[in-house]
Design a protein that fits this description.
single chain, alpha/beta, Rossmann fold, 5 helices, 5 strands, 17% strand, binds 1,3,4-trihydroxy-5-OXO-cyclohexanecarboxylic acid
């Protein structure tokens, strides 16, 4: 089973970016944690990060040939991007939306997600563990799909 993890804008700054909100864990730490967890679960994992909306759209389009499940933290584009939403809707790959922070407990504008309606579900508020939980959810999705096939 193949999982692509997509990190959106400013997540490359994790560790030093607003540590009171996002903690001190770096993106490298998160990717290393995911790699360990994926290995234990027998999942083939790829991760990418981009600050550019178009690159995220292209990554989603290209995932269609490889990934069984997408895990995406669209970061600020969650609240603005019709293009990312449409890309997820266009490909036949289930997507799990992830946020480090609890976006529903912050500013009003963060409560609106353009992605949630086209995602299987959303995991928010558990810091780096949000990604770990998403990986477990991805495994559940893929095995249910395999059972049906
Ligand atoms: C975020 C939440 C977004 O509102 C914010 O713009 C981010 C990070 C999170 O992981 O908590 O950049 O997606």
């Amino acid at each position: 089973m193949n999982v692509l993890v997509i990190h959106g804008p400013n997540l490359n700054l994790l560790g030093s970016r607003e540590p009171d909100v996002y903690g001190r864990t770096t993106l490298e730490d998160i990717n290393a944690l995911l790699a360990r967890e994926a290995q234990a679960l027998g999942i083939e994992l790829r991760t990418i990060q981009s600050n550019a909306e178009g690159e995220l759209v292209t990554a989603i389009q290209e995932a269609a040939g490889w990934a069984d499940v997408l895990i995406i933290n669209p970061a600020a584009y969650t609240h603005t991007s019709v293009a990312i939403r449409d890309a997820i809707a266009a490909v036949d790959v289930p997507a799990i939306e992830v946020h480090l922070s609890n976006v529903h407990a912050r500013e009003d504008f963060r409560r609106r997600s353009y992605i949630a309606p086209v995602a299987v579900g959303q995991i928010a508020g558990f810091g780096a563990d949000s990604y770990r939980l998403a990986l477990q959810a991805a495994q559940g999705l893929a095995s249910r799909k395999a059972d049906k096939a």
